[in-house]
Design a protein that fits this description.
It is built from 17 helices and twelve strands. With 353 residues, the protein is of the alpha/beta class. The chain folds into two domains: 131 residues, Oxidized Rhodanese, domain 1 (3-Layer(aba) Sandwich), CATH 3.40.250.10; 214 residues, Rossmann fold (3-Layer(aba) Sandwich). Strand 4, helix 6 and strand 5 form a beta-alpha-beta unit. It starts with a strand and ends with a helix. The model has no long low-confidence stretch (mean pLDDT 92).
């Protein structure tokens, strides 16, 4: 038993490894390997304290103080990792920021406890470099099919139905935890950091291989995260499909997605965001929408927002996607997905002939 160095290139070849991040919780929250589990040597407060001692008294004194903080925790840290290893029974990889003392210490302790493990060479820093290099060199071989459509047409629901049918789907809004519009954050938790978004996206792209991948037409930015060029270029060049929907169904879907609980807090949040569109909507139209919402007539307010703002805006973007290779109705996402699957199969047969 013992621990060994593992490069990023070797890590990505492992099948479903147990990846343990021994950095502090705030570091793990800001930037981490996908699906890694945080077992911190130091708490956020302890890490800050050690950083201050390092600046004031130097490295050696900081290291000794860190050891005093970590020593009492060693049995519980090892027990926690052992429990994870037992439940997963797979290759285990330990990492820190740059493959330094923290990951080396834990790897050595695990070795003493009789656990074989790897330490990621270069730590998170080297893995991040690998991700960015993959994005920049863009060696991805997947075939993109891009769903276009007006707001509320059901593109996301169609993507989910495609996924249920075994198709490879890249749901960028789900990864970004944002719906990509002014109101896109409503009802959702905080967005991931750019680095964590990149990590999740990178992992899904690796899994895609050379398959056909369905994704939704998105802008360069989804909320506060940005798409890499390798994805944005494929959105612009991928095979376009148009998802349509009746205005009644679109309004119904938007109420369900954005105002599901219909609480006063949600309405106030919606009105605050609506005010940001004052310049584009004009004062009169903004007041009409606000009046409808405040009177409890959400359907009329949303209908006006769609027909007077979102639809004209998106119709301009449609010109870049046309001509569309297929048109489906998102009013019934299951039927739309089945039509897309059948069309895709027929297209594949034609291309082989």
């Amino acid at each position: 038993m013992g621990w060994r160095e593992l490069t990023v290139e070797q890590l990505v070849t492992l099948k479903n490894p147990l990846v343990v991040d021994v950095r502090s919780p705030c570091e793990h929250e800001a930037e981490r390997l996908p699906n890694s589990i945080n077992v911190p040597l130091l708490s956020n407060q302890e890490r800050e304290l050690i950083g201050t001692i390092y600046k004031v008294d130097g490295e050696m004194i900081a290291r000794r103080h860190a050891l005093k903080l970590i020593a009492p925790k060693i049995p519980s840290i090892i027990d926690e990792i052992v429990a994870l290893r037992t439940s997963h029974a797979r290759a285990m990889v330990v990492y820190c920021w740059r493959g330094g003392l923290r990951s080396e210490s834990v790897a050595s302790l695990l070795s003493m406890a009789g656990l074989d493990c790897f330490r990621l060479q270069g730590g998170y820093k080297s893995w991040r470099k690998h991700v960015l290099n993959d994005f920049q060199t863009d060696r991805y071989q997947f075939t993109p099919i891009v769903l276009h459509g007006l707001t509320g047409a059901g593109k996301t629901e169609v993507l989910k139905e495609l996924g249920h049918r075994g198709s490879h789907v890249l749901d960028l809004e789900e990864l970004a935890n944002h719906r990509g519009s002014t109101f896109g954050s409503m009802g959702l938790a905080t967005q991931p950091t750019q680095k964590n978004f990149d990590g999740m996206l990178w992992q899904q792209l690796r899994e895609a291989g050379n398959e056909t991948v369905y994704l939704e037409a998105e802008s360069r930015k989804i909320g506060r995260v940005s798409l890499p060029d390798c994805i944005y270029s494929r959105i612009k060049s991928g095979t376009p499909i148009l998802v349509t929907g009746t205005i009644e169904k679109r309004v119904e879907r938007i109420i369900a997605d954005y105002l599901s609980t219909n609480t006063q807090k949600e309405l106030e949040r919606a009105l605050d965001l609506l005010a940001d569109l004052k310049e584009r909507l004009g004062v009169q139209k903004l007041q009409e929408i606000e009046a409808a919402v405040l009177a409890g007539d959400l359907r009329s307010g949303i209908r006006m927002l769609l027909t007077d703002y979102y639809d004209p805006l998106y119709l301009k973007h449609f010109q870049h996607g046309a001509p569309f290779q297929l048109e489906v109705s998102g009013d019934n996402p299951a039927i739309a997905a089945e039509e897309i699957v059948q069309w895709s199969r027929s297209l594949a047969v034609q291309q082989r002939i």
